[in-house]
From TrEMBL, chain A:
One of its GO terms (biological process) is rhamnose transmembrane transport. InterPro entries: Bact_Solute-Bind_Prot2, Peripla_BP_I, RhaS, SBP_2_dom. One of its GO terms (cellular component) is outer membrane-bounded periplasmic space. Keywords: Signal. This is Rhamnose-binding protein. It comes from the Bacteria. It is found in: Periplasm. Residues 1-24 form the signal peptide. Residues 30-284 form the Periplasmic binding protein domain. One of its GO terms (molecular function) is carbohydrate binding. Belongs to the bacterial solute-binding protein 2 family. Its main location: periplasm.
TrEMBL record, chain B:
GO terms for cellular component: plasma membrane. This is Autoinducer 2 import system permease protein LsrD. It comes from Jannaschia helgolandensis. The chain crosses the membrane at residues 32-53, 113-132, 139-157, 177-199, 230-252, 258-279, 286-303, 309-329. It is found in: Cell membrane.
Length: 331, 338
């Protein structure tokens, strides 16, 4: 029957098309599992993973993930990876808990499992790689402002809400290191509630209340963009520098206009690179991921694990006019 | 099991379900065609990946379709009767959220199962009331409840998660009956048999076909059309509740995003199984084979690390091909004749 034959040939041909890659068994296979494919941030992380693989030499990176950011999708991916008996899985999880049974099974079958970026509950992985840590972020936001003010000056904070845990922790950490930056004075802290219009009004208000203001620090991606716009609209570019934490894609305009000299956020390339290095160390060099362990990760230095076997990769990465072009299309 | 149900087919089809015979005759061989595709995919996969022919891997692969197939069986009956339920994935979310909530109040495994199934039934009844009593089109009603049911989950949970399910609850989604045979597989077989008998061996099943082909005619033949449809919505809700029990047990936690997009995979499975999307024809053995086809394709492509997006394209092409082929066949045949 011809329908039958046609259908069969199509199915076989289509499947055969997708089966070309040869299997290089001797390579160490490290799977970089992301929340979903087609997200610039993770594509950049995959680039970093490839860089690490090239440096290590005998590593094959399997960059994979589901279509939607669901736990079920990631479990299907994990099952397929377990079936292939890969050497290591480095995952940015869609769900802290739901992946634990699947990842436990992977570990039982001798696969190294680490999480990065978005973590898995401790029993479902050997270590978790945070892009940065609260003290490092707290220090970075004030350092960014101080670097532009060699003779000291007045800075103000534009935060999210009064109850935002992340922002409050970072500001607290920042206050601890203020002694390292003599001459820098924090004159006010205002809250834009992570709303573009309220953040804009608060930033405008700051410039009116403190005519000598030198910098606005916004440790929130909404606030920093709104503050930069307020500075441009007030005609204070060059007088007030906006800095803090933001996304390159949203901040490219502010860097271009000069409203912001520099800002910081994690670097996905470094993150993918470090995750790959750590996975390799654990699976090939017999490194134990115990609390207090110090694990090398190539050009990114070493990762020190805390009592929850978590570690912070590095300072947030600084973006300015020299690299914004490269990163604005990534995330 | 599939042998006995397959043999049962000719008996139940003595009375033609539809009168446009040529398209119907093509459909008649549907299951055998699909089975050949499944075998072909199995063989191609075995050659394509050295990891495919491993009983444990194949056992893991069944999780890709068992829960979806449970809903697909009920959905098949619903679609044969000319209705559809697009809220099934959202019913899973709501049932799972209800179970998670019950855990916080100390519910044990038996209570959780009852709650999951009951919420599924209630959601099914909710859909049924709007469709059968108020006479609204099911596609519109269930698009509405699709947002409604999941919306309630989001209100209860926000971006939080329920966890702490009792250890014994894990049996449903993570347990094994014997060797590589999972608990989910056992229930898959039981539910497939139950729906196979219901559709192909009972008066109720004949009524479902009759309604799908001609609701007015069915009504004049003394079939209580709305009552049958009401029951079908209840069954679909119940099976969604069952899928929620298995999926929640397998994940060990509940988030409101659970099972997002699953309704389309369920409908795909049903249509791939040879059920006419316009109602009136289809069979349970077809859906069983379609479940295996989809499971084997996604698992095989997963083993080759084909990205999920390419996998969706492949499933989409498979579905379009499957729907278009019989139509093309009829068109070609008509042209040859005329």
């Amino acid at each position: 029957m011809s329908v039958f034959r046609k259908f069969l040939t199509t199915a076989v041909a289509a499947t055969a098309l997708l089966t070309s890659p040869a299997f290089a068994q001797e390579d160490v296979r490290i799977a970089l599992v992301v929340k979903a494919l087609g997200i610039g941030f993770f594509e950049a992380a995959a680039k970093g993973a490839e860089e690490a693989a090239a440096e290590l030499g005998n590593v094959e990176i399997i960059y994979t993930g589901p279509t939607d950011t669901t736990a079920e999708g990631q479990i299907e991916v994990i099952n397929a990876l377990i079936a292939q008996n890969v050497d290591a899985i480095a995952i940015s999880a869609n769900d802290t808990d739901a992946l634990v049974p699947a990842l436990k099974r992977a570990m039982q079958r001798g696969i190294t499992v680490i999480s990065w970026d978005s973590g898995v509950a401790a029993e479902g992985r050997q270590l978790h790689l945070n892009p940065s840590s609260n003290p490092l972020i707290g220090n970075m936001i004030i350092k960014l402002a101080a670097d532009q003010l060699p003779d000291g000056g007045e800075v103000a904070l534009l935060s999210a809400t009064t109850t935002s845990t992340n922002q409050n922790t970072w500001i607290e950490e920042m206050n601890k290191v203020m002694g390292d930056y003599p001459g820098i004075e924090v004159v006010a802290t205002v809250y834009g509630d992570d709303l573009a219009d309220k953040s804009y009004r608060e930033a405008t208000g700051l410039m009116q209340s403190y005519p000598d203001l030198d910098a606005i620090i916004a440790p929130t991606s909404v606030g920093i963009v709104a503050a930069a716009q307020a500075v441009v609209d007030a005609g204070k570019v060059g007088q007030v520098n906006v800095t803090g934490l933001g996304l390159p894609s949203e901040m490219a305009g502010a860097i271009e206009s000069g409203a912001s000299k520099s800002f910081a956020i994690w670097n996905p390339i470094d993150l993918g690179y470090s995750a790959t290095m750590l996975a390799y160390e654990l699976s090939q060099n017999g490194v134990e991921a115990a609390p207090g362990a110090e694990i090398p990760m190539g050009r990114m230095g070493t990762l020190t694990l805390d009592e929850n076997t978590e570690g912070a990769m590095a300072d947030p990465f600084v973006y300015d006019a020299s690299n914004i072009e490269e990163f604005k299309s990534i995330f | 099991m599939s042998d006995s149900t397959l043999q049962a087919r000719p008996e139940t089809r003595h009375v033609p379900d539809r009168l446009n015979s040529r398209a119907f005759r093509t459909l008649r061989s549907w299951e055998s065609l699909l089975l050949a595709v499944a075998i072909a995919i199995f063989i191609v996969n075995s050659f394509a990946s050295p990891y495919f022919l491993n009983v444990w891997n194949l056992s893991d692969a069944t999780f890709n379709f068992t829960e979806k197939a449970m809903i697909a069986f009920a959905m098949a009956l619903l679609i044969i009767s000319g209705e559809i339920d697009l809220s099934v994935a959202s019913i899973i979310a709501l049932a799972s959220t209800a179970m998670g909530l019950a855990v916080q109040y100390g519910a044990g495994t038996p209570e959780l199962v009852v709650i999951g199934l009951a919420v599924g039934l209630l959601c099914g009844a909710f859909n049924a009331v709007f469709v059968t009593i108020m006479g609204l089109p099911s596609i519109v009603v269930t698009i509405g409840t699709m947002s409604l049911f999941r919306g309630i989950s989001y209100i209860i949970l926000g971006d939080d998660a329920f966890r702490g399910y009792p250890a014994s609850f894990a049996w449903f989604g993570q347990g094994y009956i014997y060797w590589v045979f999972t608990v989910e597989m056992l229930f898959f077989v039981i539910i497939a048999l139950a729906f196979g008998v219901l559709l192909h061996k009972t008066n109720f099943g004949r009524a479902v076909y009759a309604i799908g082909n001609n609701p007015t005619g069915a009504m004049f033949s003394g079939i209580r059309v709305q009552k049958v449809k009401f029951i079908l919505f209840l069954l679909t809700g119940l099976m969604s509740g069952a899928a929620a029990v298995f999926l929640t047990s397998r994940l060990g936690s509940t988030r409101p995003s659970i099972a997002t997009g699953m309704e389309l995979e369920v409908v795909t499975m049903v249509v791939l199984g040879g059920v006419n999307i316009l109602g009136g024809s289809g069979s349970i053995p077809g859906v069983v084979i379609a479940a295996f086809v989809m499971g084997l394709v996604t698992f095989g492509l997963g083993l080759l690390n084909v990205p999920g997006i390419v996998m969706s394209i492949f499933i989409g092409l498979l579905l379009i091909g499957v729907i278009a082929l019989p139509r093309l066949w009829t068109m070609a045949a008509n042209r040859r004749r005329g």
